[in-house]
Amino acid sequence: MRYLPKSPAERQEMLAAIGIKSIDDLFSEIPEKYRLRQPLHLPGPLSEAEVIQYFKDRAAENSTGYTSFLGAGIYNHFRSVVTDAIIQRGEFLTSYTPYQAEITQGTLQAIFEFQTLMCQLTGQEVANASMYDGSTAATEAVLMAERLTGRSRVLVARTVHPEYRDVLATYAKNSGLHVEEIGYATNGTVNTKAIELALKDDVAAVVVQSPNFFGVIESLEPLAYAAHCAGALLVAVVAEGVSLGALHPPSEADIVAMEAQSFGLPPSYGGPFAGVVASREKFVRQMPGRLAGQTIDTEGRRGFVLTLATREQHIRREKATSNICTNQALCALTATVHLTLLGKEGLREMAHQNVSKAQFALAELEKIPGVRRVFDAPFFNEFAIELPRSVRMVNAELLKEKIIGPLALGTAYPDLTKRALVCVTETTPRSEIERFAAALRRTLERPL
Amino acid sequence: MNAKIKKASRHTNQNEGLIFEKSSPGKRGFELPPLDVPAVDPASALGPHYRKEGIEGFPEVSEIEVLRHFTRLSTWNYAIDLGMYPLGSCTMKYNPRVNEFVARLDGIATEHPYQPPEISQGCLKIIRLLEKCLLEITGMDAITLQPAAGAQGELTGLLLIRAYLEKQGNPRKKVLIPDSAHGTNPATAVIAGYEVENIKSESHGQIDVDKLRDLVTSDVAALMITNPSTLGIFEQRMPEIAEILHAKGALLYMDGANMNALTGIARPGDLGVDVMHLNLHKTFSTPHGGGGPGAGPVAMKKILEPFRPVPILVDRGGGKFVLESVRPDSIGRVKAFNGNFGVLVRALAYILAYGPGVRQATEDAVLNANYIRKHLEDVFDLPYSLPSMHEVVFSDAIQKKNGVNTMDIAKRLIDYGFHPYTTAFPLIVPGALMIEPTESESKEECDLFIDAMKAIAEEAATKPEIVKTAPHTTRVRRLDEVTAARKPILRWKTSCSHT
Amino acid sequence: MPYPEDRRYTKEHEWIRVEGSTATIGITDYAQHELGDVVFVELPKPGSKIEAGKSFGTVESVKAVSEIYAPVSGEVIEANDELHNTPDKINSDPHGAAWLIKIRLGNPADVNSLMDGAAYDAYVTDKSKETSA
């Protein structure tokens, strides 16, 4: 087998050196009745070409050739081929967690650069080296707020991604956290008045997302003010990081939980992505996840090490700030490379293109009778529209024309049936936006 | 600190600064195609939220500078592609490149989890096939591929146990954990809402079954076991342990980090395990990438199936798969979207390459570990003498007499061209050296490693100073971790300038 | 190092020096030596209560965290916040400048059951013999 670097002769030599007759003897500790004496029923073995063919066959059964108008937490953005050229290098791809700093300075410096970029993007003072994704980052941010305030009530906006809220609920059940959802106002932003009314001195955190699940941009200042007056912390969730190329960063928030997928990570049917928790320096000892810190070696030269490790599971065990061990390092590296390629101007330009494309798409769609935008607050690259018919039926028709229609909002928001979430990024060609509008018009014109 | 920082060396590859230090206004590394729709004034569209200026301090560098920067950084790393990582319980095996290729295919990397199932059957079939393969390997009844890593798998497993016991009327209070366990085990138990009770190992490093009998009360929800243990030794009495737990209505959770010793040889499901996680980034070859991404699928017996996290893959008949998110008894969602699908693809590619022959990988892994053990037994102290499986644990007791400890030996191993083994773990072996070669090491590599370890033992005896001040050949020497913890510097700031 | 006689010691390596109805608490030279370079200290706030035998804070080195156990019960009057900037004092002056907290004693007599300087000295000498055996 091509992954096993031993010849039969070498195996024999090694057995002889150990002083046993056969490989079977190496497993004598396992009682016979549990020993598998038949091969497992597994497909294969396949040669390299056959492995590739298997996956190509699967790929052909997916969505190649379709144009998608889906966002909802996963965004299509341009990514340079240079990124793969770097992250595919064996020294990054096949390297281990940098516990032995002297021989992993590459990874450690890259993490330090990632942490810096995340701080610059979010307007926060410290950022960690990654969490699994945005949903678990948001959850960890809430748990962090719980530790910092000693309180257990959490107010979460319904405009936070439904699946992020689901994940928080799963973790909250066992941590004594009491999570309450706060509704949204008619313009699509979180109901600030409702938050103010709910804020008492038992609230650990107020959690909002911006741009929120409806694509609408939230104003954080009044929420931060209200939260702080009650001694609570503001947690801001960012699911579409490219928005930070054109928006004020969530620096009023005490903790930011961001999903870094927009920074060069392909959608990949849901993962792997990279979450980030960023916050104030004074809270750093309650932050979950790894941290790379700058230091010097015995000869005064700059180097980097994992630091403040006493927060983590391998030292603190039961009292750790999180149980996380393996995180999403290579994904964080991907984001780091991507962002350095894009740079200051590139990110700004990408964000502006998103705004222009989304505005264009909205204008085109609103020309169709019966189609109008649901909320009127400013948005980045996603917006909700109202349709005169069931979204599911409309999307079924659009699919025949190789268009993946916008996300139906009615499942997660029962009060929003016949509403759909349209996402347009810099990657959506104008011709496809126009084709989508034309197809939607035709579909709505057809008798039921 | 700025004035005292010296450059690592004159060699350009060794001297690379931070990307922010190479930054200069006006440079760009990536250009976008021109806008094909009318440009909208962002101020009018975004209102007061609009930030006109670019992000302060964000890098501005050209494509070649980015490529050189990260290429140079990469040369400072050790990696499996360069040589052995004898890290215990990490299973640092070869990361097959075909896995990378297929994960990047158009139609695989490009899919959005919310797209209709009609155009996602390829992805769903991949998930189904991997589920079936992992069930076959583990001997379990049901599985979830949602958890993003081992620690999350452990949490999922404990939440399944809690949900099951809760349905029976009492979730119970405690989880028993051996003192040899990986740190994620107790950390996870607390997050799952349980108290941790540690069980001391007996004289052979195994779980003390007689003590266990007394400890399993009706307050105990589960025992978390690793098999083989973190000492690399098979817990022979695991079926008996399972019986003791089951008799009191408790369950057996297995940390599957060490499956590289069992795949194709024995199945945890047959041995009494109720629920376990797997580490795809260990046993199933998906790359470590400097610390993830991984994946931690959780396999379980039928009794736990109703509580599986959502979404759940369902076969609607006629080979039409869908993901269902509504399940009344489910513990809920542990992660948004769909697990680390890209990692699942890589693991399936690995399994397909081996087929039923995956047993041979296990055999070679155990062969390598025992070969190394045989050659180092006379040179390093072996605290537990039961047979080793895929990893062996020595201690620094002999070298300690000359003031040389496991950390020193590990650092000296770097000078010989290897990554260190796992130091100071498991906690029950003071001064531990935990060595797992994996099946990816040839006899030649194993011999090189043995020679290096013997040479270091010799040095520890005759010239200990060279070991205690190692490494000597790396780009940077031992780093000041104390100052890094006392005065953490966790980001670059625009006001910094280093010469 | 001879252990000062103006105070008492616990098996968990804390010292306590009584001054009437108040007392000062710290960790011993043996403790700081075992810990290695101290990087961080977590102390309770003034006004909080400490309970004999229970942990009231932690001392951290790079690779380990140690609980600090209350020698007696009482109420915290002052915490040595200086240590947040200079945790290294715990290594250099554990019996003096690196005191941890000052408390109001619940019951001054509680201290009498603790070891004196000579007894503690003997205790740690034995302990050192154990570990290097």
Description:
The complex is a heterotrimer of chains A (448), B (499) and C (133). In chain A, 37% of the residues lie in helices and 14% in strands. With 448 residues, chain A is an alpha/beta fold. Chain A has three domains: 8-50, no CATH class; 67-78 and 344-445, Aspartate Aminotransferase, domain 1 (Alpha-Beta Complex); 81-338, Type I PLP-dependent aspartate aminotransferase-like (Major domain) (Aspartate Aminotransferase, domain 2), CATH 3.40.640.10. A seven-stranded mixed sheet of chain A has the order 2-8-7-6-5-3-4, sandwiched between helices. Chain A is globular. The termini of chain A are far apart. Chain B has three domains: 12-74, no CATH class; 99-356, Aspartate Aminotransferase, domain 2 (3-Layer(aba) Sandwich), CATH 3.40.640; 357-483, Aspartate Aminotransferase, domain 1 (Alpha-Beta Complex), CATH 3.90.1150. In chain B, the strands form three sheets. Chain B has a seven-stranded mixed sheet, sandwiched between helices. In chain B, strand 8 and strand 9 (321-324) form a beta hairpin. Chain C has one domain (8-132): RNA polymerase II/Efflux pump adaptor protein, barrel-sandwich hybrid domain (OB fold (Dihydrolipoamide Acetyltransferase, E2P)), CATH 2.40.50. With 133 residues, chain C is of the alpha+beta class. The model of chain C has no long low-confidence stretch (mean pLDDT 90). The longest helix of chain C is centred in the C-terminal third of the chain and has 16 residues, at 117-132. The chains are: A alpha/beta (448), B alpha/beta (499), C alpha+beta (133). Chains in contact: A-B, A-C, B-C.
